[in-house]
Specification:
Rossmann fold, DNA-binding, 10 strands, homodimer, alpha/beta, 3 domains
Chain lengths: 318, 318
Amino acid sequence: MTVTSADVARHAGVSRSTVSQILNGHGHRFPASTRDRVQAAASELGYQPSAAGRALVRGASDIVVALIPDMTVGPTLQEFLNGLTDDLARHGLTLLLRLASASPESTERMITGLRPAAVMSMLPVSPRLRECIEGLGVRLVEPGRPGDRDVNVEIGYAQALHLIERGYRRVAYACLRDKRQDIFAGQREQGVARACERHGLPRPEVVRLALCVDEAIAQLRALETGTAVACYNDDVAAALLGGCRELDLRVPRDIALAGTADTPIARLSVPAITTFGYALGPAVSEASREIIDALSGDGHLPAFPPGFEIRLVQGGTT
Amino acid sequence: MTVTSADVARHAGVSRSTVSQILNGHGHRFPASTRDRVQAAASELGYQPSAAGRALVRGASDIVVALIPDMTVGPTLQEFLNGLTDDLARHGLTLLLRLASASPESTERMITGLRPAAVMSMLPVSPRLRECIEGLGVRLVEPGRPGDRDVNVEIGYAQALHLIERGYRRVAYACLRDKRQDIFAGQREQGVARACERHGLPRPEVVRLALCVDEAIAQLRALETGTAVACYNDDVAAALLGGCRELDLRVPRDIALAGTADTPIARLSVPAITTFGYALGPAVSEASREIIDALSGDGHLPAFPPGFEIRLVQGGTT
DNA sequence: CGCCTTCGGTGACGCGTGTCAACCTGTACT
DNA sequence: AGTACAGGTTGACACGCGTCACCGAAGGCG
């Protein structure tokens, strides 16, 4: 049923350890003829090494676990993960996903039991989990350290910059009231604030709301006419847009809105919401390279790579 | 660094095999005193069995792989996966996720190498992957067989039924032109058609569009006034709603719209879109029970469980 | 010839676990 | 006393793999 390295060895007429060495990068010790025989036998039999056997003898598995934040996994993130999966697969690594919102104990048990080659988190991990991971000697790939580019800061900055360039002098920042859903809000707000500061504008007012039109109305009442709002995401922008309609506020003249994430809701609103999409495409190769480097050399802990592109999708709300 | 069963054995003053037996459900052979000593030693040392060692000797790992369809993973699915994760963890199983859109070869390699206890797919798997999985003797949990409840058929049915009850006599079904994004369309359309048939209405017209307002306008021009449209999801409904606005069609008088999935876009539209949410909550325990049953007994291949709740969220579009 | 080196290849070990036949020690029964 | 039996415990094995010391043969050199 299962093809083991012993089967390959028999089929190639060599010993199992020869097979193991050739298939693990030590082939240079053997003449080409032997190498070819073994390779041929392996592919003919469809040999696939047992992850368990490998992991047992090497002390760590070939699995890389990605901790997925508690947020909507849309096309952007999906494409990133897809690319990363294939990239790592090319290096013999297996990417598997885990929701970060699963119970901490079960995640901890999973890590200690599985001994992944690396754990990649898209958000800073809890101190306890970090301790668990590092105590086990498992590599941890985390979001960039201070000083690195931060995609969320830059998105906030791009939003605010765009609004300022369009001539708005009053900039506000709108995010979700429920902070659990709002995992990037801090960084984005920081980006908005930084852009305002650099252009001599006062610190942006921060508006918090839940995702419904009624709350949007309440918040809009408190805003001065002429304010441009950088929104945490397109949903927030849509809520405010709906509120503007109910209040008969003209968009973008009375209130301007900039969203984030380039989701369908932005395109489908009337008017379409000006939004900032980002592609993590460039990050794929960087991320896999960082992981692979960290696993081969005993280098420092790599940071979640800063490769990304932000692009403006101009709509009618700014 | 790592605590092994040998450490536990030493600490408890028994042999390693005693530890193994007690920790694997064969404790009834031992007196309570021994059991307690071993349990105490295990928890005191924080013993966590090596997944690799287990997998090696048992021929299959404790990992359950869930194949995630190529779609947005929103709160509904996330909650389901979270619950399943914890539920399975309680039975010693580890749920890990994998994007179904990753390259087939890498997924195949992952399965053969990892030998998961089970693979759960939310969509029918490709014949080739099925062959790979079943050839390995790995359990496959798939969407329900014909005859089972199908959440997507029922959603379509509920949409159409609602529209019919509201008095509409012309029912259409709108879905995405790009079929790759439209993985459930067939079933939902089937549900809509069934409801129409049962109520003596003609077979529903099917409208295909890409997610933009322009396409919606084009499709709306071809629809008769007074048509009620069951939409594949809230995005489609939003696009049509935007189109109606541009064409000055009154909603719901000229065109009625029913969405699906209960996403923010439905709540945030003006008027709010009538939509059908579904909760997979009840499916969690069913799913884990099915998986566990299938793994303990050598029963038949279980089907993806039909436990779910559909609820109407009344908006202003019907 | 005797010694050393290189090439090609192998046997044996250990990773951590679950299982199971076998063993030991009482105790009950014949 | 001898036998049967049950309860409690253990040693040994196998799972599939990577590694590494080691070995035989061939060749070079003094």
